[in-house]
Amino acid sequence: MRIYITGASCAGVTTLGQKLATLLRVRHVDVDDFFWMPTNPPFTTKRPASERVSLIQQKLGHEDWVLTGSCMDWGDALVTRVDLIVFIVTATPVRLERLAAREKKLFGNRIAVAVTCTKYMGIFGSGPRSTTTRISQGATGRGTSCGYQNK
Question: What sections of the sequence does the record tag as coiled-coil (predicted)?
């Protein structure tokens, strides 16, 4: 089975993909590993879309796999190869907290966080977090969607 997991930044897409790939014993590929050219500092130069797609296709191979990340507007050739699409929705305050933690871990004191994510909690609301999962299988088994919501 070829699975594509997508959602907003810090929604848990890569984490779920890694765990699922391990559980299924299949290859995991994250589009973020191919989106940017290797630079210092990182994330300053986008890799051309055609090159990204080619590199990802080579890495995925012809066996079962889990692909994670967002390849919207440039990765149609990748998405047409999937059997199941999983879209993760995670509350914005949760994603902002994760983003701040990730940036601090990656860059430490080299970046300054002007506004903490907890400040947004009052704007977007917070409350008990629950998880619901919806899975629907299409008639063809291609382009199927799954909603995973983390509130």
Answer: none
pTM higher than the cut 0.90: no
- Decide: 99 and 106 in contact? Cβ < 8 Å: no
Q: What's 40-105 look like in SS3?
A: CCCCCCECCHHHHHHHHHHHHCCCCEEEECCCCCCCHHHHCCCCEEEEEEECHHHHHHHHHHHHHH
pLDDT band of residue 128 (cuts 50, 70, 90) is very low
Which structure tokens are listed for 88? 């993760």
Strand 84-90 to 144-150 pairing: parallel
Domain 2-89+129-150 fold is Rossmann fold (3.40.50)
Domains in the chain: boundaries? 2-89+129-150, 92-128
State yes or no: pLDDT of 130 exceeds 60.
no
